[in-house]
Every structure is written in C-alpha cells, then in structure tokens.
Amino acid sequence: MGIDLGYSSTNTVIGGSLPGEGNLISGNVTGISVYSGNFSITGNRIGTDVSGSSPIPNGRGIRSIYGFGTIGGIAAGESNTIAFNINAGVALEASASISVRGNVIHSNGGLGIDLGSSGVTPNDPGDADSGANSLQNFPVLALALSGGGNTTVQGTLNSKLSANYILDFYSSPTCDASGFGEGSVYLGSSTVTTDATNLSSFNAILPSVTTIGQFVTATATDSQGKTSEFSQCRLVSPSVVTISGRVADSANQPLSNTSTTDRRGLGNDPYQQERTILVHKPLGRRELCRQPLADEFRFRSGKPKSDERPLGPDQSGLHRREDRIPNRRHRFACVERDIGAAFRRGRDSQRRR
Predict the structure, then answer these.
(1) What's the burial of 273, exposed, middle or buried (CB within 10 Å: 0-12/13-18/19+)?
(2) Closest-CA residue to 229 (of 140, 343, 344, 125)
C-alpha cells in the first residue's frame, strides 16, 4: 500500500500545489487508499516515474470507499498525474463523495474514473440512482471542433431536475478501449443548469486549441462536488475547412465569378454540413448534368431537407431539383467530384422556367 488513510481521517492533505509538495506514489497494490474521512489529494504523480512520463504502475491509482474530499483541482499546481495503473485510475465505491477535477488521467488499464468499480456506469434518466458520487450522469458529447484558437464542444447533460453542474473538458491523443475516455489535457470548464425535463444542452467554447484527430471527453460535477465518470470520446474535427478547386463547363473551360466553400458544424446543428460551389455565370443547357436525380448531392449530410423537391425532367429531358435556402433560390443541376469531395453546381439568382 502506498498511502493508507484508514478510518476517519480528518482534513488530511496528500501533496500540495506548490513546487516540491507533491509525492511520487508508484509500484503499490493501491497508490492511495481512503476508507473514510475527508481529504485533499493534489500535485502528486501516481503510477508514473518521477518525470511523470514513464510507467511504474500501481494496481489501482486511488481508491475511496466512504471518504469525501477532492482529488486535483483546476488552480495552478493542483492537478495530479494518475497514469499507467493496472486497473482504474480513480476507483470510488459505496457512498464516497469526491470531486475529481483538472487531473492528468491517462493510460490506465481500467477506467480513468470508475464509480462503483464496475466498469462504465450507464446514464439513467433524471439521474435518480445512488452509489459512489450518487452515480452522477456524465455528459453526452455530440460534436467537438477545433479552430480559431478555440475548442468548441456541443452536447447535453441529463441529470437531476433544475440543478447546477460544472462540466470539465479534456483531450487525449487516443480514446480508451472502452470508448469512454480518460483525460490527458484539461481544456477548461463550463456551467449548465438542467431544466424542468432534467436536460441541459451546452455549446462550450474553450480557449484551448486541440489537435485535429484527437479526442475530447468530459465530466460533470454537481453542487455537492460529486464528479461523474468520463463521457464517451468524441473525435475532434476542424471548425471550418475551405476547399479550393477548379470549376469548368462541359467543354472543360473555366467559369468566372465562382466561389467555393466547405463549412462543417455551423450554428447549433451538430450534424450540419454544407458543401457548395455557387456558379454565378449562367449555365448553358448543355452544361446541365445528365446524372439521375438519385445521384445528386443533398444539402445536409446526405439527408434530404423537407423543403427539397424534385422538379422532374425539363423540356430537354434533363433532371432538375430545387433547393430553397433563406434569401436565395437555386436550382441545382449537376454533381461534380473535385479533389475527392462531392460538389454541386447551380444557378444563382436566375430562375429557369
């Protein structure tokens, strides 16, 4: 046993936020064990070597059964590095009530944070279950974008009625094998309040850049300081991508007055995607695409909009489709593939009757 606080410890501090106050707690069956009592664990390296980058694993990093207190924090120096342990990084059991925030948690054999020491605990509607940290529900992430100096995360939290929560967000180069992440880098936090249906939606803009292709996870902490397990991983995508390409007519001649955009994840719709080439030069009839209507590119994520409708063949027997977009009206008639993406070619500000 690395450090065993036993029964009824009172105001016990392990480590500290100032340089030299942290401990190296590695190579034990359990790094830190707390049966009951209140405590603070900050600034330690648990399961690593002195550099924090190589493994000297414990069986479990931290285990608490009835204790209450804090593990880590978001102020300077409070974070613990909890990594490379054979089982869970932080295992909370019975009626433990513990805040777990701002730590570097990665590469553990079990979950980063395990409530009940039983693997992933599924969310329940209204969060009415009980157990370690009241089995606090974790956030559900729908979208993670990086760009412009920020990381934006959208999702929902279903928990107790009309209650306040702190959401902490983390990134990692890889996702845990369970699909529910750990957290290598603390990105920042956001606060939410659930409504009368136990739900809160969030759009957190965090002042940290996350590498495209890494993963974001999150935890929720209630007003009593009880932290959830980590959420499922969400792959980080670019917030805006601009694709430049060549637009040509049927004779392979370049068209003037064209613009190309490829924008993903705009607005509050986590599934919104828009890929458009607007061709402002009127298209001749011979430039219309002769592909079947079913092959035409759809406006959002391959799903038809309710206001899209096929117009059928025109007088020349070519298929057309009408997309109605606020303040604009386009009749798109062609699908092109340019540098691997599906584009659509259309008429702008011109109606064909």
Answers:
(1) middle
(2) 140
% residues pLDDT > 70 (the chain): 69
The span from the CA of 21 to the CA of 57, in Å, is 21
Distances in Å between the alpha carbon of 353 and those of 279, 311, 315? 19, 11, 10
In degrees, rounded to 5, the angle at the alpha carbon of residue 228 between the alpha carbons of residues 227 and 229 is: 130
What CA–CA distance (Å, rounded) separates 5 from 329? Answer: 70
Q: Which residues pair with 253 in a beta bridge?
A: none
Among the listed residues 171, 207, 208, 167, the one whose alpha carbon sits nearest the alpha carbon of residue 189? 167
CA distance to 63, 116, 244, 275, 278, per residue, from 261 (Å): 51, 49, 8, 6, 9
Burial class (CB in 10 A: 0-12, 13-18, 19+), 141: buried
DSSP 217-272: EEEEEETT--B----B-EE-EESEE------B-TTSPBPSSEEEEEEES-TT-TT-
Q: Furthest-apart CA pair in the chain: how many Å?
A: 87
Structure confidence by residue, pLDDT tens digits, 25-77 = 999 999 999 999 999 999 999 999 999 999 999 999 999 999 999 999 999 99
Determine phi and psi for 182, rounding to 5 degrees.
Answer: -105, -160
Q: What is the pLDDT of residues 146-186, one digit of tens each?
A: 999 999 999 999 999 999 999 999 999 999 999 999 999 99
Pair 171, 215: CB distance under 8 Å:
yes
The model's pTM is: 0.71
Q: What is the DSSP string of 272-298?
A: -EEEEEEE-SPPPGGGS--S-GGGSPP
The 3-class SS string of 27-49 reads CCCEEEEECCEEEEEECCEECEC
Sign of CA dihedral 143, 156, 176, 101: positive
Using CA atoms in the order 330, 336, 342, 343, what is the torsion angle rounded to 10 degrees?
-30
